Amino acid sequence: MSQLKYCQGPKCHTYDTKDRKRGPKDNKRNETRRRSSFYYLNGNVCSMQCQADWFDVYGSRALDHFGRITQPRVMTKDNAWRVRRNYNWDNRSQDTFYAYNYLTEERRPLTQQQYDNANTITEDGKLAI
Ligand SMILES: [Zn+2]
Fold first, then answer.
1. Separation of 65 CA from ligand 1 center, angstroms?
2. Which of 27, 36, 68, 112 could bridge 2 with an S-S bond, Cβ 3.0-4.6 Å?
């Protein structure tokens, strides 16, 4: 059985829904939602509202903690690579693969293994092979 976790929305318990209600009649309370998985904020909150609440409270602090962008980030021909696939709908085993450069429009053939490998293109768009 998967582990239950709490929604990380700081105001989750303030939304009055049936599934948040706990306790006996004379001591009713609303609690933070608890589930095995969530869809929002990378699986950490139960709803778009809780995601917005989280960002309102913690967003600026997170940017300060992890570092703000203080000068423009730049895409050049060196970091403009993405992997692409040419589908052959008549015979899928004949699909072809290539690295594509958004700025120069250059194409370099790839094997399917290179296409499937997340490290073929670095996180910042450089061709690593
Ligand atoms: Zn929530």
1. 23
2. 36
